[in-house]
Design a protein that fits this description.
alpha/beta; 6-stranded mixed sheet; 5-stranded mixed sheet; Nucleotidyltransferase, domain 5; 10 helices; 342 residues
Length: 342
């Protein structure tokens, strides 16, 4: 089934055409340059940027697919969770396109879509079929959650952050260290030359259930940074590299350990790592080394699908349409807070 996917939940405007799990085209327009000077996403700026980009992004995705709009069988659009103003842009566009072209539209939970992103096929890469049930860790700037995934459309939350998401902790600490935005890639790059044992950073809620807590890391990094007068150091100072590595290792240890705990408790054979933070090179390495060596089948999103994208929206939308789940009408509204269990 040919599905047109659309995504505008935060700061990426995206559209894609997917045919039964195979990505035919994908266009992602990032807003990083607009939010850079603010050190984070500004909701109103994000909404305006989506408004300016959505039409051209959708048309480009269709053009790249080599198909006419009339060939599209359904539209899948992110309905939530996310920034309400941002969500409204793609949702409104999808409803309008649905009316104009007589194509049905389905609302997708983009966190669920992240969990299925390792199963996207593209060009000459054929993704494996999901081995349900499985445990998925979706970790980003807005989400750090563990799910028991029973099928493409059945999700149960088994763990989540009680405060900051892991990506949010990376962003806040990177800003505090003067590394700029987005913080995750900056920390990842800086940490490669650092000693992860240089500074003692506590692993919050480590080995204590399946929930997460990362809010205390900012205070710890703040204290280390100022106690060692790092604000006067050059950007390539070894101490900054060591702090970045120590922070990253603390976050990675917690994420990898809880993913393993969840897999063991629910006795699954496969685990998924997805979301923006899944692009972190150290996290990918540790999850593979620790979990694969334990006999688990480890599936990690391709870096192209770690951040918000429309290909994963179209992929999940296809399963929902087949089961008649989430078909939208003109009264459909964004769901800025939308638990995957609902």
């Amino acid at each position: 089934m040919l599905i047109l996917g659309m995504e505008s939940s935060c700061d990426e405007t995206a559209a894609a055409v997917v045919d039964s799990g195979l990505v035919i085209s994908s266009v992602i327009r990032s807003q990083t340059e607009f939010h850079l000077k603010y050190g984070g996403v500004v909701p109103e700026i994000a909404s305006r940027a989506h408004l300016e980009a959505v039409d051209s992004v959708v048309k480009e995705a269709i053009a790249q697919s080599g198909l006419e709009l009339q060939k599209i069988e359904a539209i899948a659009v992110t309905q939530g969770p996310g920034l309400v103003g941002a969500l409204l842009v793609a949702l409104s566009y999808a409803k309008g396109l649905s009316i104009a072209s007589n194509i049905k539209v389905v609302g997708v939970n983009h966190v669920q879509a992240h969990a299925l992103s390792p199963f996207l096929s593209f060009s000459d890469f054929r993704a494996p079929d999901p081995d349900f049930p499985l445990v998925a860790l979706v970790v980003s700037g807005g989400h750090t959650s563990l799910f028991l995934v029973k099928s493409e459309t059945e999700f149960k939350t088994i763990g989540q952050t009680v405060d900051d998401a892991a990506g949010e902790a990376f962003d806040k600490c990177a800003k505090l260290m003067g590394l700029g935005y987005p913080g995750g890639p900056a920390i990842d790059k800086m940490a490669r030359g650092g000693d992860a044992k240089a500074f003692n950073i506590t692993r919050p809620m480590w080995r204590k259930g399946l929930n997460f807590s990362f809010s205390g890391l900012k205070t710890r990094v703040h204290d280390i940074y100022h106690q060692n007068s790092m604000d006067n150091l050059p950007d390539d100072a070894q101490a900054l590299k060591d702090l970045a590595a120590s922070l990253q290792e603390a976050i990675v240890d917690v994420l990898a350990d809880k993913l393993y705990q969840a897999a063991s408790f629910y006795e699954v054979k496969s685990v998924v790592l997805a979301g923006g933070v899944a692009a972190n090179s150290r996290l990918r390495q540790v999850v593979i080394d620790r979990l694969a060596s334990s006999g688990l089948n480890v599936l990690i999103s391709d870096p192209a699908w770690c951040t918000d994208n429309a290909a994963m929206i179209a992929y999940l939308g296809g399963f929902q349409i087949a089961k008649n789940i989430g078909i939208l009408d003109l009264n459909a509204e964004p769901k800025p807070r939308w638990p995957v269990d609902q």
